[in-house]
Amino acid sequence: MILRLSLFVFLALAHANFAQTSEELLKGVILKINSVKDYKADISIKAEIPFVKVPIAKATLYFKQKDKFKVVSKGIAILPKQGISDLTSFLSNESKYTSLLGDSKTIGDIKTKLVTVIPNGENNEIILAKVYIDPTESLIYRTVLTTKESGTVTVDYTYGQNKKYGLPNKMTFSVDVKKFKMPKSVASDIRNSEKKTKDKKENKGVITITVIGYEVNKGISDDTFKKD
Amino acid sequence: MLWKNTRNEWIKITSKIRSYLGIGALTVLIVVVQVALKADGGSFISYVTASFEQTLSFNGKILNGNLVAFIVLQMLIVHVPLLIALVTGDLLSGEEAAGTIRMLATKPISRTQIVLSKWIAAALYTFVMTAWLAFLSLVVGKFIFGEGDLIVLNSSGLNIIASDDLPWRFALSMLIAFLALLTVSTLSLCFSAFAKNSVGPIVATMAVIILFTIIGTLDVTVFDAIKPYMFTTHMAAWRSVFEVPLPWDAVWESIVVLLVHIVVLLGITILRFNKKDITS
Lengths: 228, 280
Known about the structure:
Shape of chain B: elongated
Structural class of chain A: alpha+beta
Distance between the termini of chain A: 75 Å
Mean pLDDT of chain B: 88
CATH superfamily of chain A: Lipoprotein localisation LolA/LolB/LppX
Strand order of the largest sheet of chain B: 2-3
Helix content of chain A: 10-25%
Number of domains of chain B: 1
Largest sheet of chain B: 2 strands, antiparallel
CATH architecture of chain A: Clam
CATH class of chain A: Mainly Beta
Oligomer: heterodimer
Number of strands of chain A: 12
């Protein structure tokens, strides 16, 4: 009986020591985010969006703590409205949300823990965030953001050389694309009758951002973020 | 003799004030559109991207010279035929109204050659107008707004075309636009062979364009059979060049339909002028 009790106490203590809480998991992630003061990344953007035909675009992404973010592209680059830098800046302010620990899930071959993040206020664009974190390396492998304006945005992350900073080398965004409303003035195409796209159903668009190279903590001037 | 007469016809066109009216009007219109877009181009862009803006953000220089050129072409390609018909509709009937047709017929040149020389001069004028339209919209547009990718909205959705993929597309679209305008020139020349004054052919040309355009836009099945053969249907073919992938079959079809119209209308003009009684 004493042996059984001792074993129970040992297991309970062990669980308390090794099982991380949602706050601890997020703290690990935030720690990595905060180790990056600024970065510049050369990226290529591949957008596969219903009703949109766009060539692969090259762009440069600038970030500076806490929430300075800018994309500079020579051509036209389509990016998701949510999910690039807003989640990390949102997570950095712990007083703004409540987190709950959820189930484990294997993404690829990585075992992750689900942390559900609910904003405390009502003014946030993000309504709910599901963050899948690798507890051993404190890396986010997937986020599912439910937003007020942009619907649901799912982001899958792949890591490479800049794992230590928590910076992914590939991000795949899955976004809701609303019904395409064609302005009447463009409805007079020659072959309009052959391809009526009015009132097509809501669809998913996939935007893949591949990072060609990072420059981390090299210092970026505030002038870079000024509007052109 | 044909080329000598063509030169004379060209001199006649360039010596008329109405020939410069079209070029002047085109210049004013394009400058007005460019100034308006410079002042408030943002509202046009949001009109194009509105359906996607809730979820997606468009980065980069959207309002650029290529987009402005496309907008200008789209706005003016409908109105340029009137400016061209003003000159070409007068080529044969103007001679009759002025009484110079008999003097022209006394020259050692066949009536067919007279029509051909007038048609070549009309084609040259149409080319000048098209080239001027291209220069103002594209070259001046790029000078004011700079280079950039082209964002085009059509019935299949939104096409974004890289700037280095655009020069040949603009060249091809201008070639198709030239063929469309040359069809209008030939039509007005054809009407000119039937008329005895200048106003009739010009008004008739515009009436035909308006009538065919209305029939083309009416979504009534009874017209479906004739729509593919109307030249006005193919006047907008230049726009197809900015689709991805480019619908070559449709573009070729439009080029062939326009060329057939030019040949048939020119043939009718030659036949009519050869049989025309100019002695009375």
